[in-house]
Amino acid sequence: MLCVKPNLAAGHAANRARVAQERAHMARALLADCRLCAHQCGVNRLAGKHGLCHAGPEARFFSAQVEVSDELELIPTFAVALSGCDLRCDFCITGGPSWNSRAGLDLDGKMMAERISRALENGARTVMLLGGEPTIHLPAALELVALLPDSVKLVWKTNAHGSAQARQLLEGIFDVWLADFKFGNDACARRLARVPDYVRVVRENLIWAQEESELIVRHLLMPGHLDCCWQPVAEWLAMEMPGVKVNLRAGFWPAWHATRHAELRNTVSTPEANRAFAMARSLGLNLIL
Amino acid sequence: MKEEAESIASSGDEQSSELLILPDGRILAHNLTPVMASVLTLLNPEDDTIKSRLATQSK
Fold first, then answer.
1. Does residue A251 belong to the interface with chain B, where contact is any CB pair within 8 Å?
2. Which of A103, A252, B5, B57 could form a disulfide with A83 if both were Cys (CB 3.0 to 4.6 A apart)?
3. Average pLDDT of A227-233?
4. What are the C-alpha distances in Å from B18 to residues A68, A200, A253, B51?
5. How far apart are alpha carbons A23 and A26 in whole angstroms?
6. How far is B53 from chain A (nearest CA, A)?
7. pLDDT tens by residue, A59-96
8. Which of B13, B31, B57 sits opposite A69 (nearest CB)?
9. Widest CA span of chain B, in angstroms?
């Protein structure tokens, strides 16, 4: 059973590195009964057992570079993409390394911290941990944070499918949660990402993240999913999180196994994108770029 | 050259962006690096989306 000492106020604390180091030890021990994501597999990753994400005890990364395609308020960001994910989205744009936790290179925390330091010196404004899904590599993520100055603005880019246990470990560590709300209903989530109970879990994570840090909610508009996915997501955000920053992205392309699904074999049409943005405006969403 | 390329790859220092060029001429980009953003702005200097992303680098 996890017991994390509270309480860091919203926004990270001045002693973040020390707290992250303590939490990293706890997180690593918890891999013996892994319940970091909402699948709650309960496998012993320290003993070589694999849950649905197939991740082992050590993290690997498949990309680490300065990027400018995220939200304007976050870029340039030094983005560290960890291999492996607990979801199986057929349209994942990084499907290969996201579905394979062994892809990429070993994450050497000290070397990565040095690269981050150089990137910050050269003008990066933030550091973003993403995946795949970083939640399944929480021990390594916290170990990396422990090596970074407390002044660095940290972004947790997540699928918002973490468990309550993961949230406890993350409390007060990241300045910004950049969270996906991909599906507006459980049927689409199950069909396209093989995940049950999706909507409830994501809502729970978003509500927590809004209380705990800055929150930006992303939705990748998918062709043919405006009414079943975007509309319910938009309506829920308008109702339950008025004013939350929302980034509606219309740049879907049929990557990875998207062509398994007839409606995902194309990009989003201009009329469909226009309708989606009109819907957002009519609901009063706080759209950001 | 080959040895140099392998050295870069094994260090994880290589950079990559993915582009999808649509039949109507639009370009979708993923994992856009500053260098690739500079290249794209050469294709269409008036594109506000890319201009705004380049502008953040001078802040």
1. yes
2. A103
3. 98
4. 13, 33, 11, 18
5. 5
6. 6
7. 999 999 999 999 999 999 999 999 999 999 999 999 99
8. B31
9. 40
ipTM over 0.90: no
Tell me whether A123 touches chain B (CB under 8 Å): yes
Burial string for A169-182 (b: 16+ CB within 10 Å, else e) reads bbbbbbbbbbbbbb
Chain Cα centroid distance, residue A71: 14
Residue A94: closest CA among B2, B10, B17: B17
Which two tokens mark A38?
A: 């909402």
Residues in chain B: 59
Round to whole Å and give the CA distance between B41 and B7.
30
Tell me the pTM.
0.93
B54 burial class (0-12, 13-18, 19+ CB within 10 angstroms)?
A: middle
pLDDT tens-digit series, residues A113-152: 999 999 999 999 999 999 999 999 999 999 999 999 999 9
N residues, chain A: 289
Task: Specify whether the CB–CB gap between A84 and A133 falls below 8 A.
Answer: yes
- Out of A64, A69, A104, closest to residue B32 by CB: A69
CA geometry: angle A4, A197, A248, nearest 5 deg: 90
- Extended beta strands in A42-200, E state: 60-67, 77-82, 105-106, 126-130, 153-158, 176-180
| Tokens matching residue B14 | 């290589």
Sign (positive or negative) of CA dihedral A252, A273, A285, B37: positive
Q: How far apart are CA B44 and CA B42, in angstroms?
A: 5
Which pair of tokens denotes residue A8? 């860091």
CA proximity to A84, closest of A29, A141, A169, A124? A141
A201-204 long-range contacts (CB < 8 A, ≥24 apart) are A201/A38, A201/A160, A201/A161, A202/A159, A202/A160, A202/A161, A203/A236, A203/A240
List the one residue out of A184, A212, A216, A214 whose CA is nearest residue A200. A184
